[in-house]
Write a structure and sequence with these properties.
- With 131 residues, the chain is mainly β.
- It has a domain at 71-131.
- The protein has one helix and eight strands; from the N terminus they run E-E-E-E-E-E-E-E-H.
- Strand 6 and strand 7 form a beta hairpin.
- The longest helix is centred in the last third of the chain and has 12 residues, at 116-127.
- It is globular, with a radius of gyration of 17 Å.
Length: 131
């Protein structure tokens, strides 16, 4: 895919939220917004219901969210004064995708890795590569 690199078993991409969405990063298409999906595609209306990520009420404090009904699919957000890191595990719990966002500029980078730390390191290094 254009704009993506593959390196050491992880994919990375960098950009800016201020640049506007890229075609592969636009979000829901017309079907998800209630329009038509185009030739050969089914409308999202009536297909699957939306669900949420929820916190484990047993955790004190709850730091990791998981998909309601699928505890292996996890989401975690951490931050410092400079950067937001948004970690998303694979559907089955294997592998991680991390979005690193510079809080001041809204520049971002994305990386995947087999472990959360690998994805985080890749996204963070990509985001601040020019520094």
């Amino acid at each position: 895919m254009a704009g993506r690199e593959r390196s050491a078993g992880r994919r990375t991409r960098a950009g800016s939220l201020r640049d506007g969405p890229r075609p592969e990063a636009r979000g829901p298409g017309p079907a998800a917004r209630g329009g038509t999906a185009g030739a050969g595609r089914a409308s999202v209306r009536g297909m699957a219901r939306w669900t949420s990520f929820v916190a484990d009420p047993e955790s004190d404090p709850p730091r990791i969210l998981h998909e309601n009904g699928n505890a292996a699919h996890r989401l975690r957000v951490e931050h410092d004064d400079r950067t937001l890191l948004i970690h998303l595990s694979g559907e089955d719990g294997d592998g991680w995708l991390t979005f690193a966002v510079d809080r001041a500029s809204r520049q971002y980078a994305v990386a995947e890795g087999p472990r959360q730390i690998d994805a985080a390191r890749g996204a963070y290094e990509r985001l601040y590569a020019a520094d």
